[in-house]
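Annex B, item 7. Sequence and structure tokens for protein A, then protein B.
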Amino acid sequence: MTRILSASLWFCVVCALAFTSALPEIHAQTGLLKRANTGSLNMPLSPGAAQPNEVRYALEDALPGLTFDRPVYVASAPGENNRLFVIERAGRIIVIPDLSNPARTVFLDISDRIKSDYEKSGSEGLSSIAFHPNYSQNRYFYVTTTISTRSAMGVGDHNRLSRFQTSGDNPNFSPPSSELALINQYDQGYGHNWNDLTFGPDGYLYVACGDEGDPNDMYQNSQRLDKDFFSGILRIDVDKRPGSLPPNYHPGSTGNYAIPSDNPYLGVTAFMGSPLDVSRVRTEFYAVGLRNPWRIWMDPVTGFLYCGDVGQHTSEEIDAITKGGNYGWAYLEGTHAGFRGDPPPGSSFIPPIVEYGHGYSQDLGDCVIGGVVYRGSQLGSLDGAYIFADYTSGNIWATHYDGATASPKQWLASETGIAGLGLDPRNGDVLLVNHDQGKVKRLVLDVANGGAPLPNTLSETGAFQDTAHLVPAPGVVPYDVNVSFWSDGSDKQRWFFVPAGQTIGFSPDSNWSFPAGTVWVKHFELEMRKGDPTSRRRIETRLLIKNQTGVYGVTYRWDDSQQNATLVPSAGLEETFQINDNGQTRSQTWHYPSRSECLVCHTPAAGYALGFNTAQLNRSFNYPSGAGNQIAAMNGGGFFDRPAANLHTLRSLAPADRNDASLEFRARSYLAANCAQCHQPGGSAQGVWDARFSTPLSASGIINGPLLNNGGDSANRVVKPGDPDHSMLLARIRDLGVGHMPPLATHELNSEGINLLHDWIQNELPAYEAFSDWQIRYFGDVNASAASPMADPDRDGSPNYLEYLTRGNPVSGSDPWKIQARSLGDRIVVSFPQLARRGFELQSTSTPNDRNSWMAVDAIGNEPFFSNQDRPATIEDRINSGAKFYRVRVFEP
């Protein structure tokens, strides 16, 4: 018997009777791997110091057991020594009332007021807090937020400076109703908002304001005194003291503050060579010419006001802010030429005290955070140092500034995701807020001098029993991936090691988990004559080691004898090789990554081990004992904490040359392998799209997705169907230089990846139709009652969303997509048209009314796949006895 049912994802239910079956399965491919009961690698769980007597620093959890929702800042109230406040971007301030017994409670919750799409920019939401110098008496504190509201300036996004008051009855609670707005600034762009604030020793409030967002100073704010409150540092009197002045009229100003009488722009009649109407001057400004000042810090001892100003394409900078100072943006980016052109004659700009370029070595970064001045007792050599971090590269540095010059920055440690720094009110320890991990960390001395020493040569690591011939040691297992990360055209081999008695936490779709002591080995070779495999030269072998807190990576450079490799310095290095490319000799630079660079991609969000997951390892591999599926072989070898089930239904990425797969399937696989480690929720990328293959394309933010940096062209999108020239995702991998992706160790273009993405954008994506576009095509409006996903206007049993997935006509009453089932001896055979660029999964149950009992059929042909063309699909299954019901799930890629 057969009857057709419909739902948003399901199309057909079939009841069938049959008996035994003996279908071939990949489960039978066991015995290919046998785990070694002994064996170990000589890699310490904590890496040692690079030089004898070198002082090493590390980060440790400052609040064990406590996690936070995308924290960005940490602070304490003046005069207090046992209470800490943590700022969460979504609109909550968490207080730790007793640091000796840390527990979290909500101090202020204004999440209902925060801009709903703050995820689109790394600097939106609730960003900072500053306590009034007389907080113990008046209970006032101030915050900067990004909200969507209506004001005299318009309707939409606003930067707001507000005052709140702590409850008089409960020192660990502030009622949201206590808010008093000081300034509401309408904001047209993404990012570059009002990021930070602090009180100075003068009792005035200093506010760090970005340039309104979007690239190249799009809104022309950077060198203006008579427009809005952007691109500088404000200084205001929140107490309206005698002698302070009222601000000039501005529609965003509430009048709930005054202007200090010595502010630098009071009474000015000209600026940057142009006359000014004195009544329109924003006298709130203390300093100007900043792009995106993310964190400011007032040193109470020296009075120096430090600022971390995030750069665009060239450099990051630390500035010492002085009254009336102009720091050059957008005529300058740091000390480099900016986008404004030549400044007016006589212009004077203050250079940064520290400037560094973009990159991922221990000397570079991509998003400066700013920091704090340390005057605690635990890190003696850093007394008086300004300690600051870079969010993207993870580098943490120190510099000493004497009011005139700053010492060369000293690298201390590395951890990506740092969004703010503060001080422990008990002892002055440096606290670092890890936005990506949701943790507050502490900078400490590595009392063990950096842990155990690292092996100096590859042979000493114990990874190979015969290093010269790359024969792995017992327990070191070879593997391969479906889609390789681009590494400048090198050929790679891979191995992994799991300590005896330990197992991997398997997941069919999410990241796997790994025990401490797990090691991954990746070996790189380059052809010295392109196209000639016999000319391969061993370049480097990298090891990634899992420990209790995360991972660390080291790399070994092969010597000219090609018999062994030597440990590369922690800062990394570069080497140039001469390549014969079709008879022409060219130079190719090879970058050996620094240890901090390893952590840029090998993040918690990425699962630490890139390419070591189900979708990458679900493929065949030639083991010494025979060929077989890697997941099945690991299953049979006892590597997983529990048996991996339903192996035929597991996802796998599609290589670029798999021509029976859709271009979208292959392009999304490329992005998953090369971009998803950063471009995903919780990842380190500042973009707003999701490269994970498990995220449907319609929800990924890729198609016509907005950009934080549109490259100066408002027509650009993440990907624009049919328009490769306005697809920034393609441009970032197609063009070397500033902004090239992937950003690490890449000096050569990936022509295969470039061609794949170009073909997808140019040839396949023009036919892409989102469900909302489909609704408009048939019903004129996505909100029409007949257009609802579950509506069935033609009463054929198929709701609209299913009609969309199977290319049906929602108003015709006739659908060409059907399922058929028949008995074939001792098997049941289910067949249906497999439509191009759609996924299909056959499911079964013996109790169809129990919605939780439906399971994917573990059979050949039921693998998740997105074909490049329509084709018939046939899946066979066995039935032991009684009735069995079948249905097909249809889904978007």
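Protein B:
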Amino acid sequence: MAYYLTLLIFVAPIVTSIVLGSEMLAVVGVLSFFLVIRLMFYVSTYFLVFPFGDPYGQFGVLRVFDQTSHISIIFPNIPPFAQSQYLAVLTNQYSQWPGFQVLTLSFSRVTGMPLLESAMAITMILDVGWFTVSYALVRKVLARTIVNLPNAVALSMAIVTALPTTEIPSYFKYDFPATLFLLASVLLLLRVYDNHDFKVMIPLTILSVAITVTHSISSLFWVLLLVPFALWTTVPRLFITLSSKIPFVLGKSIQWPKFTRQPPLYALFVFALLSFFSWSAFYAVYIVKYSSVSTGKILSSFSLGALSGSRLSSNQSHIGSLTPKWILDLLYVRDHVFLGLLLAGLAALILVPALVRRAHLKILLLTVAVITVVTEFSGALNFGDRALLLFAPLIGFFTIAPLTVLGSRWPRLGKAVVVSLMIMLVFAAGVGLWASSYAPTGLYMQGADPSTASGRPVTWPGVASYMSFSGRQDCILTNEIYVTSMSIPVDEWNISKMIGNARPTAGCLVVVYPGLFSAVNSNVSSFGFGEPYSPYNGFSPSLFYNHLYNNTDRIFSTREATIYYYS
């Protein structure tokens, strides 16, 4: 109750500053809310652990690059879809887009900070950078649209901050800096058309390279985003003809920028496209192998039912037993209100020509809408609401567009809806952090041990001491999917296997975490077809563990883990 009351007290000034305060005061209020929500997990765990599992795989790649002093693919000969050597597959995949590791290593070398502290610090720096770039982008977009809401920029940023798909707390993961690079590229793209500034083509080219070597799906979305602008540059009359023939898309009163010469965006598009394919063909070969296996699965995954499986509508399903029902109901309402605003905003963009009259801005927003809709209706291509995460500031425009239309006709009603929406979204973001298992329920208990807050021990003293004198081991079995680089030395990752279809053999270590049986019960991949690991068909957890307990020697045991040796 103390937490809920504190959250309500915090929500009140945020909403008040947006509705009644100056823009600067409102933006500072939203920024404070943004930082508190995203840093809560890190502060509560004394910056000792990462949330989620993926950052540990990223950190493992960072350690390898630091140890070898060069960038290379880790475990290049590992099968890309190995079901039993998950750790090796994970590091192999992450090492093929080393942009984030290069950035973090450079920060560590310049500041002299250890790797873990550098990884934590770079995440916080990217948080502030993301908010700054997002604010500049939202301000630029709303300055060229007809918006009659109080502090529309701060309102949009508050909605974006409270997005149900926003990663809270922030990841140490390669898609985070790629998102920042993508938003900065969109900001420079608008500058080309708003200010006729062709000098930004140089930083745009640099950012294209940065996106390519940092994250695959971000690079692909950047290429798709450039497609209509490249066409506009090469065949400008086509767009003007479409504007007159199909007025409900662009509008008859659309304002086309007048250039003395067309910007060379077709060249940027060709460069980005060639960079994407070249990097995939000669370095990031994982995506080629992945595409050869998954293309049919992706095409067959498009359906209306895909929405029901997305994190937007089902991100509470796995924690229902830990969360009060009223919180689940609130998050359910929040998700559907947000989805309704998105659809209404898209309709307003198309049906209300006066809302956006700048041709380049409307083309940009329509392209973002198409990418988002296509990916959301694909169970395999979505990758966790990827488009919503990448284009969050622009998605914020779609959420306030219907409020703008409502406020233009009924100002008082529009203001009341804005206040109610803000209270619900900001409060839901606060309780959603606790309720969505991002922070364990025991995190706020007096005397909680921060080293176990992520659900993963920071060290493996038993494995470390045993491996130091036991000689060669054929495998390490574990029921923890995300065994971390802090737990097992990097050079031992290629002998680590998941409990499942890998049976214990002579010389094996088996590490069991009490209560962590996700590997056999719920490790269905979010990619829609069980990659890079699949459910273990015909595998009985009870038989495996009974066999383990009866036929192995227990060599190390704590409340967090028990280590067995199969002799």
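Comment on protein B: The longest strand covers residues 508-512.
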